[in-house]
């Protein structure tokens, strides 16, 4: 598709009449506009639930001499048949004027980001965020956009990231404004920028990440010009804060088609800037085919892990960020641990532990929260543990330790381990699947008999100190770990047996 800005396109304007959907009429007092010839039946149905409070708010802005419109994602989603949940609005009013109107309209009003022209408010169950028409770009070397206010809705739309997000519905009459051909691109499944892609990405480099995110979210293709600009300008992302990059990566991974977005990041070289460990997996491709393609394997593991996510009442409700992150990072230690042995054998010994350290380092750089870093890196560390069971079977002690080491991540570890089987050898795949079925059955049996998820020594720290007559200190922790190991090895022993074992351990230490 040829690129181009709004200059070569006629603005699409269709009247849709908010009247009839909210019980209110337009400013002219006519209810006959309720049928919107310019909106598809799917969009009309999606917009039918717009709250009545929105009509009252829009009339207040119009009476005050301002324009106001529903804009961006909610409009795009309506044409895709999804009722708008977030009410993102744009207006010609300046922030202080918006704030005054919202305070008169709503139950409460707050400053979302006055420097960016955004004020929020709530009335009943209706929550809105309203932003003044604006333009923005990045100064050279700056991580924050410089914002200036615009004068027209059309101008505001042309500064947005992609044409499918550059549509608006003027309120209160639901007038569709589409100066950049976003509706046609939406129907074609194309991501295109309202202005030249290089200019757009130079104005806001985070749009490079958003291209991949929307490809994953919408399942759309990226226009060739956008693809080239992503390749040429990937380095520009270095001026964007890690927090904003991380937020886009999270949205990409939680989308319906994350593989599509990740492949786009890797293909364009963007991953080498934001997630270089994933891009490096391509280096493990072996022209002699002595082992599988780790990059393609990783993407397949992601697909298979997603398929194992559960509904909201299941143990791993999807989309699950921790599981999906673990899927794409579980083998990132392989490039650093690859070794070629005589006879053509290739090994990756220790890649689980190396990968866990690399995972934590990358996630810290992207400013993930501590718990997510801990959980994902732990899954990466444990993802190979099962293979010892598949090869030789485990004692009850080993099963207990597997459950205890996984802790609250056990259900995710189940899914990551199963998803990690991508062999084309059907016999091997069936064997591994059966082995894991057996392990899960063993876990269920032990859990029922021993309350496995809550394994603790029979004596706590206070009881240990009382038995041995010692004060708090490192020895208490050593005694606790001894009793925990005993519990793992032999199962429940009872308090009396634990006391005897503790005193025997203590006496041996005194010799």
Automatic annotation (TrEMBL):
InterPro entries: HD/PDEase_dom (IPR003607), HD_domain (IPR006674), HDIG_dom (IPR006675), NT_sf (IPR043519), PolA_pol_head_dom (IPR002646), PolyA_RNA-bd (IPR032828), tRNA_adenylyltransferase (IPR014065), tRNA_CCA-adding_enzyme (IPR050124)
Keyword Cytoplasm attributed: no
Enzyme Commission designation: 2.7.7.72
Pfam families xref list: HD, PolyA_pol, PolyA_pol_RNAbd
Gene3D superfamilies tied to this protein: Beta Polymerase, domain 2, cca-adding enzyme, domain 2
Highest taxon above the source species: Bacteria
Cofactor: Mg(2+)
Region (Disordered): 1-39
Protein name: CCA-adding enzyme
Organism: Actinomyces slackii
Organism taxonomic ancestry: Bacteria, Bacillati, Actinomycetota, Actinomycetes, Actinomycetales
